[in-house]
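Hey, I'm writing a tutorial for new members on how sequence and structure tokens pair up, and I'd like a real worked example in the thread rather than a made-up one. If someone can provide the structure for the chain below, I'll link this post from the tutorial.
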Amino acid sequence: MKYPSVPGGRTWALRGDSMTLRTPHLPAKAGAAAAAAGLVTAYLAFVRPRLLRAGATAGEADGPYPGDGLIPDGTRSATMAVTIDAPRSRVWPWLVQMGTDRGGWYSWDRLDNFGRTSVRSLRPEWQDIAVGDHLAGTPDGSQWWEVAALEPERFLGLRMSLDLRGRPFDPAGERPRYFTDSLWGFELKDAAGGCTRMVVSEYWSFRPTWFQPVLSILLLEPSHWVMQTRQFANLKRRAESGSA
């Protein structure tokens, strides 16, 4: 037998010779929603900041970075860094020979180099690049990174400009209605003990603007962290080994 409810939605129930106070359970969906909200909050507050600044100091992440005027309306995104126990002159040759049709990207080759193995040696024929050159991003060359900035042994800026169907457009002309336009930068600085500090950062412009943070948080930031940390590890290993 049930009796009238008391504050909080609880009811008294008669069982045998005793009365018990029943408290209703939260709906399962409400509990799942609360747990999901907690996970999202924890990710945004604790995990995401570490992905965006992996290995970088506050000065490297918040200070000026080359190429800030190359992407119109571009915003700076993740900044990551690594110290390589080799001078800039031994790190730079590995950077300039990047490209799907050249030395690869030194990351997870199955994911970003179409299964082609990134080279483990320096190739003289890939050492001369200039502003305006294209470094293929696909085996057929239908997409590419354009050399947008070049300061030997100091900075390499690679730009990719695509509409949302994956078709390249001329960044010097009119942009499509919907597009992605980004700069992937590699800055080399001298560090103590003859080492090199490599700081990688990006500038990015995207339309529609409302979708940019959604795409960035859900997909691009985590995947960039996975790929960039792998590239750091492989570049560090190659440059420090003195492979020729």
